[in-house]
TrEMBL record:
GO terms for molecular function: DNA (cytosine-5-)-methyltransferase activity. Its EC number is 2.1.1.37. Keywords: Methyltransferase, Restriction system, S-adenosyl-L-methionine, Transferase. The active site is at C69. It comes from the Bacteria. The keyword Methyltransferase applies. This is DNA (cytosine-5-)-methyltransferase. The lineage of its organism: Bacteria, Bacillati, Actinomycetota, Actinomycetes, Kitasatosporales. It comes from Streptomyces fimbriatus.
């Protein structure tokens, strides 16, 4: 078997499925388990810290783990920073067969911090029978010192181990998501997969094919690969369903418009209606209140107006903002999930006297769009309300990155074309 600890909604599992393999995931979150079930993935809903290790001994070929990272993550409140020495102590003790978790947990500021030591409990039990054959683990970059501690233990048990930071964009993921990776094997030299993409495309050489350019959000979402794709956005609220975690004034979505047939990636025109109805706009076209609901929205041709769309990761002053012609920044969701929005600004090069429509309001990203930017298929069956879906997406490993990491362990070729994104 391939055992997947903290399996989440199935990033590793999706990669394995494309590669022709399956795992058994241990996961606690109810909605992640429902997503996994809908995707046809084997799952045990359980607390990884409480589940026994003996059912896996003598039966496990590979072990995968993406444990929670509250003691290291930049995304949260980082209350667990003081817990890092306790996590290192737990790993050391578990590697020696000493279970001191109860004592250490009582000293933790964040009860979740010690979960990062749980993979060592399973590894120690499996090592008694010479298992697993290989290990793959992934987390935020600041976890790298912990992975180095794991690596030292695994080398002592006969593994070849590599640890380091990889950028998902270098492997075809439309997102510059940097992650700390641990790869270990008993049967081959552990090393990172060769990058397939680069910020700037590279020509072929005598040493082999060059890397292609990073995949942009526009390409991944199927919105056209031009530098300035122009979506058509119509006003009005999106469909309901579940608690609405998004800020007031941003209920429209690009996908909502697309699904209603009012969205187009063609740069030959744009139809816009905005809440920011200025006096000049109202004088020419009427206000939202007095315009006929059956009348078409005002139209501006591409020669008169074109917007540049970007994705803003949150509403903080230092938020990452990336143009559609680039990969997204790291998608992380939690208390700021409601602020990941598409934002528009007038394109450069417009003449000063050009008549333009008011700037559209920010448009919230959808779970479908966010999932695609994580390289999940467009129809992936996310369960739960919007907040629960976004939480799953932000915590998942991108399946395409996972496939690059796993293919050598499975001794199977990886065809990136198998990871079709936008439908």
């Amino acid at each position: 078997m391939i055992l997947d600890l903290f399996a989440g909604p199935g990033g590793w599992s999706r990669a394995l499925a494309v590669l022709g393999a399956r795992d058994i995931g241990l996961e606690w979150d109810e909605w992640a388990c429902k997503t996994r079930a809908a995707a046809g993935q084997l799952t045990v809903r359980t607390d990884v810290a409480l589940y026994p290790t003996w059912p896996w001994v003598g039966r496990t070929r590979g072990l995968i783990a993406s444990p929670p990272c509250q003691a290291w993550s930049m995304a949260g409140k980082r209350l667990g920073l003081v817990d890092q020495p306790l996590v290192h102590e737990a790993v050391e003790d578990l590697a020696a067969g000493r279970d001191t978790r109860e004592r250490l947990l009582a000293a933790c500021r964040d009860e979740r911090s010690l979960l990062a030591a749980e993979p060592m409990r399973y590894l120690h039990a499996l090592n008694t029978v010479g298992e697993p054959e290989w290990v793959a683990m992934e987390e935020v970059p600041d976890v790298l010192p912990l992975w180095k501690q794991y690596a030292a233990v695994l080398r002592g048990w006969g593994f070849s181990v590599w640890t380091g930071i990889l950028n998902a964009a270098d492997y075809g993921v439309p997102q510059t998501r940097r992650r700390a990776i641990l790869l270990a094997s008993r049967v081959r030299t552990a090393q990172p997969p060769a990058p397939t993409h680069a910020r700037v495309g590279e020509p072929d050489s005598l040493f082999g094919p060059g890397r292609v350019r990073w995949v942009s959000m526009a390409e991944a979402l199927g919105w056209g690969a031009t530098d300035r794709p122009v979506p058509t956005v119509c006003a009005g609220g999106g469909p309901g369903g579940g608690p609405e975690p998004f800020p007031s004034g941003s209920r429209k979505t690009l996908s909502d418009a697309r699904e209603r047939g009012t969205w187009t990636p063609r740069p030959d025109g744009v139809v816009l209606s905005s809440r920011r109805d200025g006096a000049g706009w109202a004088a020419r076209h009427g206000t939202r209140e007095n315009r006929s609901t059956t009348a078409p929205a005002p139209t501006f041709t591409a020669e008169a107006h074109r917007w540049s769309w970007s994705l803003r990761s949150n509403n903080q002053a230092n938020a990452t903002i990336r143009a559609l012609s680039e990969p997204a920044g790291t998608l992380f969701f939690g208390h700021r999930a409601n602020e990941c929005t598409w934002v528009a600004e007038p394109s450069a090069g417009l003449e000063a006297d050009t008549e333009v429509a008011p700037v559209p309001d920010p448009i919230r990203i959808t779970a479908r769009e966010a999932g695609i930017l994580q390289t999940f298929p467009a129809d992936y069956p996310w369960a739960g309300n919007k907040g629960q879906q976004f939480s799953q997406i932000g915590n998942a490993v991108p399946p395409l990155l996972a496939a690059h990491l796993l293919a050598p362990h499975l001794n199977v070729p990886l065809n990136p074309d198998d990871f079709a994104l936008a439908a």
